[in-house]
Every structure is written in C-alpha cells, then in structure tokens.
Amino acid sequence: MRNAFADEVTKLSMDDSRIVILSGDIGNKLFDKFKEQSGKSFFNCGVAEANMMGVAAGMALSGLRPIIYTITPFTTTRCYEQIRIDACYHNVPVIIVGTGSGFTYAELGPTHHSCEDLAIMRVLPNMTVLAPADEVELRQCLRAALKQKSPVYIRIGKKGEAVTAKKNDHFEIGESITVREGSDICLISTGILLPIVMKAAENLSSQGVSVRVESFHTVKPLDEKTINDVFSRYPVVAVAEEHSRVGGLGSNISEWLARQAPMKGRLITFGVDDEFMHEVGSQNYARKKYGLTEENISRQIFTAYKDASI
Amino acid sequence: MEPKKLQGIANEIRGRIISNSHKTKMPHLGSCLSCVDILVAIYFYSLKIDPANPRDPDRDRFILSKGHGAPALFQVLAMKGFYPESMLDSYGEDGGVFAEHPPTPDQLDGIEAATGSLGHGLPIGLGMALSARIQEQSYNVVALLSDGECNEGSIWEAAMMAAAKKVDNLMVIIDFNKWQATGRSEEILALTPLVDKWRAFGWDACEIEGHDMGQLIDVLTKEKNSEGKPIAVIAHTVKGKGVSFMEDDNNWHYRIPSEEELASARKELGLFK
To answer: Which residue among A49, A107, B96, B199 has its CA within the 20 to 30 Å range from the CA of A13?
Structure first.
C-alpha cells in the first residue's frame, strides 16, 4: 500500500505543483522518484511531528496541498492538538496519511499499534476519515482527497495487502463500494480487513447464507444511504474493523442506529478490545486474539442469523 | 515613519487596550502592553501588507503566536485600516468575532492564523515561509512569541527545521517580559540564556530593547544574513509597560482595571477623554 501511495502521489504531482510531501523521517527510498521529480516539494521534517503538522497547515493556508506521511500513532495521537487546531479549526486541505494502521506493526508493540485513530479523527470537526481496503481504493482515496478543501485523514497498511476484486469504476468519498451481493445478511468492512471479511462471507455462503459485503473506505462522512438500506433489508448487519470497538466505524454506525426508529437489522461489531496488547505477536496473532478471523466472524454471524430466523 | 510618531501610535493603542479591558473584562493586559511597541513597529513600519487587499498572495505575513495578545492586535489592525474601528465596539459581545484570542483568518481580515494555544504560530509561520520558496514568492514571515511560549517543545522543533532548511525569510521576535501566567519565566523552566539558545539552534539571534522604536525599526529592516539563517530577535520588554502601577506586576496577567485605575492609566499615558 505504501508503494502505491508513493507511486500515486508522484503521478499526481506531475500535474499538480501544489502537492508537497512532508515525511516524519520514514520512507527511506520510498519517495526517491518524487524527489527526483519535485525535489523542492519534499521535506523530511525529522522526528518532530507537532511542528510537521503546523508546517503543513501553514503551507495549506498559503495555497499548497501538503501530504503528511509517517507511522499512524505519530501522525495522529502524537500531534493531535496540531491536527485539531492547525488543520481542522483552520479548515485547510492537509492530507494526513497514517501508515501501518491497526496491527500492521504488531511486532513493534503498542507504541506502534494504532487502534484508536479512527475514533479520534472522526470526532474532529471538518475532518474526513478514509480507510481504503487495498491499493486500488487507496489511489482513489488520494485522488478524491486532493479535491477536498478541508483536512482528510487516510489510514493505510504497510505493503503486500491483497487487492480485492470489486467494481472500481465509480468512487466518491462517503459512498461505500458493494464488493459482493447477497440476500440474507450484510457484512461491512473498513480498511485492510476486507480480505478476511470476504473469506468469512465465503464460509457463510458454503453454509447456505447469502452475504452482501460492503467496503466502507469512508468512515466519515458516514454513508447513511447504504446504512439505511442494509438495516432496512437484512436481519443481521455486521461491521468488522482492525480498530477498537470504541469509536470506530461500528461505533459510528451504532450512534446512527440509536437515532433511528427501530429497524429490522441487528448490529454486530467485530473489533479490538479496549486494552493494550502486551504480548508479543504478529498481525495474524493479534487478529486471532481479538476475533478478527474469518472463522470467528462467520461463526458468530451464522449463530446470529439463525437466532434471527427463529 | 519617524520613531516618535510610532511611539505616539503605540501610546494611543495602549489607552484603547486598557479601556477595552475595563469595558469588556478581557484579561492579559500585562501581556498586551508588553508587545504593543513591537506590533506598532511591525504594522506601521516594516510589514508589506495592504489592508485594502488583505489576502494578496505576495503580502508579508505576521503571526501573533502569543495569541493572548489579541486585544492588542485587534486595536492595531483596526488603526491600520483592516476593518473600521467602530467594529471594535462589539468587542466581547455574544455572537461577535473579537474575543481573547485571534479567530481563524476567514473570520477577520488581517488575521493569518488562529492562535491561543501556545507553540502553534511558529510552525504555521515556518510552513508559510517555506511556501514562499516553493511558489517562488518573495514575502517574509514574522512570528511574535512570548517567553513563556518557549516552554513548548514545538517551538524548538520548528527552530531546528527552519535552521536546517535555511529559511531566511522567517523572523521570530520574542516578547521577553520575564513573566508567564503564574510566575517568573526563568524560575518555571530555565529559559536563559535565550539569545544563546537561539544561536545554538542555528539562528541569527540578537537582543534589543523591545520598547525602543529606533532599535525595533533597525532590527525589522535588517539585511538578510548571507548564510541563510532565520532571524531571532530577543526583545527585552516590561510586562504592563506604559502604566507605572501595572509595570512588572504579574497580577495584571489576569486583573481587570477598575474605573479609577482606567482613569489614572489614561492620565499617565497623556490621554484624556
């Protein structure tokens, strides 16, 4: 995903001289082509993220389109006040890219985990929150973000994420992509968990349950049209995300649901527990620990579906 | 403009700030009075900016990084002509734009950044200064900091980046009044030697008497150095400057003048209703 990000930004900057990349001393060689092409628009800001965010806001106030890139906790929690005031309060088009979201950097420990970013970003006024599933969605998110006049946060993985086949001809911020049609239940995925969600849908399908899958690349603004549709239509709607169950997409949808008159659909959420993961482990280990596996997701949904059918 | 004339403007603005504080109960009087001369020298002498065209892309930028000096800045901007002075009659009223800190630029002409949380203005100013380089423009950026604000790590992050990238169209002025909200700045966090700190961070740093218009003019029109260093000016000031019973008394960080104190202050400043 990060290679696709560097590649797409380099392509986009050929036609848009306003693009500036600010890196927090990561991405060694990642931006070589960009630097070759637009050297004066690349800044390694060092390990000083608060300043980096302020610098980006100052550039955006001066007509440029700064893109900030570093590991997710350092471009979100580390400089949160600068995001809130410099980017959001001023309502300027700063694009904040967090690489290694969720448990992508599981082995590096909780300092590098990021299971709170969707929550703290979506509460900020003026902020758009995007979580592309793969590099195809990432490229589309970037292009769409550059058309915004306000701050955008893009949560991405690391590298080697599988691309999920889906209709990609139409992309709009705030409009989810239907990856798979189904008539019994709906599974909503946000971000890099999509391949697992797709496998869970396959499992359910082999058990005779027809599953619709939606890829929510946009966490905020919430695609209320799709949400309204699926909760009106299906008895079970499940949301899966590599993020805390507090404040993420599932939380966003539950807030929406609580404001509606009772609907047909029951909401089930899959996400990370409200705790730090102290044990050492890989991303797969972490996913297993918090039930973000195709087996657990399909099993729980199957039970819920059967309960709803009685 | 002659230093003496600038001093007259500063005097008038001091009177207006104190009257406004009495009327609207706005605090930070001491902090405002310590930076009035600096603001007047910047706006009425050095800054290339046209109040009739406040968003001109080639204008110089001034950022009040010490946002709690807004009651002083609002008076200066009005006198400079960014908006009618009568607009300030609504100061502090519900639904208005004039409060304790500067609003966002889209809310009021003349404002470049909404400050108030310390340590934000310099990084934003650095971004603006770098933008001039990227977009091949020749404007300068000046950021006014308080000494207490230098407690913030983001100030020193920006200082290092500005030096590394040789940002020579950026100037920092520190309103060094030796106080912060609740005590002597030196006792709270070791600040001094401030000029040496900025030099050690790679800046072209100097010290001046921050209430001396002649020295302010000289430093604001200083030639750029040949090494591409950003400029830091440590302006020694007195908190509450201009009114004997407010000078160097930190109670005036939050205290609001009574009617008698207002009258006596205006009298001292040679201003009569």
So the answer is: A49
What fold characterizes domain A177-309?
Answer: Rossmann fold (3.40.50)
Which CATH topology does A2-155 take?
Rossmann fold (3.40.50)
User: Do the domains A177-309 and A2-155 match in fold?
Assistant: yes
- Domain limits, chain B: 3-268
Domain map (residue ranges) of chain A? 2-155, 177-309
- The pLDDT tens digits of the residues spanning B9-42 come to 999 999 999 999 999 999 999 999 999 999 999 9
Structure tokens at B121: 């203005």
Q: Do B114 and A89 touch (CB under 8 A)?
A: yes
3-state helix, strand, coil in chain A (%, to 5): 40, 20, 40
Residue A168, pLDDT > 80, answer no
B157 has a chain A CB within 8 A of its CB: yes
pLDDT for B273: 58
Do A35 and A10 touch, CB atoms closer than 8 A? no
Confidence (pLDDT) at A89: 98
Nearest to A103 by CA among A35, A170, A193, A238: A193
Spell out which residues of chain B touch residue A60, defining contact as CB-CB under 8 Å.
127
Q: What is the DSSP string of A139-207?
A: HHHHHHHTT-SS-EEEE---S-PPPPP---S---TT--EEEE--SSEEEEE-GGGHHHHHHHHHHHHHT
Residue A39 CB-density burial (10 A; 0-12 exposed, 13-18 middle, 19+ buried): exposed
What are B238-249's pLDDT values in tens digits? Answer: 999 999 999 999
Which two tokens mark B52? Answer: 């009739």
Q: Which amino acid is at A182?
A: G
pLDDT (average), residues B200-211? 98
Specify the pLDDT at position B50.
98
With beta carbons less than 8 A apart as the criterion, state whether A1 and A156 touch.
yes
Question: What is residue A160's predicted lDDT score, i.e. its pLDDT?
Answer: 87
Amino acid at A94: V
With a CB cutoff of 8 Å and minimum separation 6, the contacts of A275 are none
Closest of A155, A175, A89 to residue A125, by C-alpha: A89
Residues belonging to chain B: 273
Q: Which residue of A has its CA nearest to B59?
A: A62
Residue A239 phi/psi, 5° resolution? -120, 130
- Kindly tell me the burial class for residue A97, based on how many C-beta atoms sit within 10 Å of its own C-beta (0-12, 13-18, 19 or more): buried
What does pTM read for this prediction?
0.97
Nearest CA in chain A to B161: A45
Q: Are strands A218-220 and A128-130 parallel, antiparallel or unpaired?
A: antiparallel
User: Are A61 and B119 a contacting pair at CB < 8 A?
Assistant: no
Give bridge partners of residue B62 from the DSSP assignment.
B142
Task: Give the residue with greater pLDDT, B200 vs A158.
Answer: B200
What are the tens digits of pLDDT across the range B63-89? 999 999 999 999 999 999 999 999 999
Cα A127 to chain centroid distance, Å, stands at 13
- Both tokens assigned to A18: 């306003």
- CATH domain B3-268 topology: Rossmann fold (3.40.50)
Query: Does residue A305 register a pLDDT over 80?
Result: yes
Give the count of Cβ contacts less than 8 A between chain A and B.
Answer: 101
Q: Do A50 and B157 touch (CB under 8 A)?
A: yes
